[in-house]
Amino acid sequence: MKLPRLWLAQAPTIHRVVQVNIRQIVQLTFLLGLMFSALLAIPFLFYYQAESDNNLSLLQAEQERFIKLAVSAIHQEMDAVLSDLRYLSQHNAIRNYLASPGPGTRRDLATEYQGLAGQKRIYDQVRLIGLSGMEEVRVDFNGGSPRIVTDPNLQDKHDRSYFEETLWLAPGQIYVSPFDLNIEHGSLEVPLKPVIRFSVPVADNQGLVRGIVVLNYLGQRLREKLDALEEQTGKIWLLNAQGHWLMGPTPQDEWGFVLPDRSQRSLATQLPRLWQQMQSENSGVHQGEASWIKFERVYPLLGERIPAGGPFFAPPVDADRYYWTIAVELSRSALHAANLALLKKLWTMYGMLVLFALLVAGALAFAISRNRALAQVMERVVDHLPVLVAYVDAEQRYRFNNMAYELFFRLKPREIYGKTMHELLGDTAYRALQPYINQALAGKAVEFERQIAYSGAGMRDVVVAYLPDISPQGGVRGFYVMVTDISRTKESERRERRHMLELAHVSRLSSMGEMATQIAHEINQPLAAISMYCAAGQRVLQAGSDHGQIKAWLDSISTQTNRASEIVRRVRRFVQKEELQFAPVDLGQTALDVAELLNHEAESQQVEIVLELAEDLPPVHGERILLEQVVFNLARNAMDEVLSRSGERRIVLRTSFDAQQVHFEVSDTGSGVEAALADRIFDSFVTGKEGGLGMGLSISRTIVETHGGILRYAPNPGGGSTFMFSLNRADK
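The structure corresponding to this sequence follows.
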């Protein structure tokens, strides 16, 4: 392979640096000695490997045994809980209470729950929740002394996911929540308490669902059982289906899907190759740098065995998709300890042969050409660079390229040598690159990033640098080409953008869910008016009276129909899901649309929405639905703030513009942002609202930043808050 001229020009300097001397001879002798030693080591390695494999097989068989013990323990625990839940859904106390709810039957049911909690000692809570979501009977484990919770301390659980999921089930069907941490009064219970919630609908004698029975299984019991196995084997891991640790290498690695400060502590981020293998295989062995990890997927809800002839019970919902992964880590140090005795014997014999190999290597060291060694080193370095490196002469022909070109274009280096750039890259790519090529041949260094359609490699995102090779006389002899393929990085950015759209869509759906009552009321008004006009028309037709009034009523019906249609259109447009479509957007119209969405709720809560919209407001370049979502989130947060305090309830939506940007502000007269949250108000899962998720402002900030702006917050001097953002004008 011919080296580029610049490298050849540097060869004398490199040659002097690496010139062979006594030290180099010693080093080369050592390398050759290693080569001979490697050949001599082959029979030793075969024997050692056979014995090592045998030791490894024994240790891995032990791993397999402990995994089976762990799986058996999990199934035993889950079967016991499912059995208790089915008993509680059909025993006499619950039947009596549902047939005749009252203080006496309720007390009997609570006493039954208290006895079960004290006997089993594995349930943090045993509850009966009514259809409204309010707890009717609840018994807390209370650290081993179960107690019945009195009425003032019963909680409303209508917004909890396990309650909503269970309400959709038929009597006898069971819902099992993910293995996570217990939440009380909207916050994580401290110290952290792992729980799994088992729930089943219960029906009265007529088959009508009257509530749900919920068992909060103490997950620490399962963890303790698995911890006991660790004393006999290596470290046991328990992971959920998303790759987060339920039991991890360290306590700090656990519950990353619940605790925001541990969100990056998952198997997918720390051991991505192992996580990919776990996703594609139900069981297997992963060989890492320091350990072997044996894993097996376990379906804890499929372990129950119902005796023949026993009553039929529906299996838990999605039991065939509810799984965890058990993994046992076997460190290499354990295997090394088993192989140490054998290794000592082999080393003695091998050491004597290595001394002889070094003597032979010294005799051959002088036969190695220093120039050939230098060329091999240079080729090896360049060929292993993860960057396409080439030299193109003044006629735009390739005179050198590294092995990365072979992977990129699927051509051997000899097939590329001598080709023109037009022939190799293809017509489309060459025309896109020609302006930069001309600049490089004019003696100007060029660096750029763009997406290029190569004829032999397809569409790629690349960073390209052209460095001219200038002769001592000032002429350009060619240029060096360095191309970095960043397609995966760009694809990751596109995936992040799609993820942002998904989060934004979920946020819009959640907002509409919260406003369902107001939307239903708005639609009900025109529907009621239509019904009234139709009834009046029927009376006139039946009475045979003057039909002239019917035309006016029909016009009114048409008006009310259009009104209802407009309400549905606004809601449907707000929640629709589509790809980013950037176009000119009128933020003034966006403010009007949001005000219309919130109008009924504002009127019912005596909140004044003031629109201070600039005339002749220029449009911005953006995605209409996403920008409307930002304004909606800010306005809805402002409404929540003004409702949290007495006094004036006013929200102002304000637009303005200057020569470069359009500005949007949402101001309120609420209580303002707490000082402790001011610096983190835009972070995910940070909120000052009771029951809030803390995602609205985070999503809004992401959307604004995607549009090239910055979402800011400032307290109002007279109280309340102002959230503002600015976007570039579309006409500039």
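The chain has 20 helices and 26 strands.
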